[in-house]
Design brief:
The chain has 125 residues and is mostly helical. It contains 5 helices and no strands. The protein has 2 domains: 86 residues; 38 residues, no CATH class. Helix 1 crosses helix 3 and helix 2 runs antiparallel to helix 3. The protein starts with a helix and ends with a helix.
């Protein structure tokens, strides 16, 4: 079992435990909505650790806390993936395909509009 499969298996075990102990009965739409709201909350917690307020004195980033919040997001990603029917292998395969597509777009090898890199004047000289 690879690392991503291990993460999925551990998250499934945790999700199953929570669902059973709390007697949760939701449909896919409710799960997707709930998980994405939880992810929004985690993203907000990440944002609050960053010095984005230009009207305040900058603060040092607490990297340990920032890493913990990022890992909180990683708990929700496998849950969301599994709720929509994706396995760890599906995630890997679809990621690889989409990653190549994103590179192709950046390299001008895509018919999708809006990704062409415009040459700057200094690059033309």
């Amino acid at each position: 079992m690879d690392k991503l499969e291990t993460i999925f298996a551990l998250q499934k075990k945790l999700d199953d435990k929570i669902i059973e102990e709390r007697q949760i009965d939701k449909n896919v739409a409710d799960w997707v909505l709930g998980i994405t709201v939880a992810m929004d909350s985690e993203i907000e917690e990440i944002r609050q650790l960053l010095p984005w307020k230009w009207w305040k004195n900058e603060k040092e980033i607490d990297m340990e806390e920032l890493r913990k919040e990022v890992i909180d997001l990683w708990h929700f990603l496998p849950s969301l993936s599994m709720k929509v029917g994706l396995t760890a292998e599906d995630v890997y395969n679809m990621y690889m395909k989409k990653n190549q597509e994103n590179h192709d777009r950046q390299d001008g090898k895509s018919s999708k509009e809006g990704y062409a890199v415009k040459a700057t004047e200094s690059a033309l000289k």
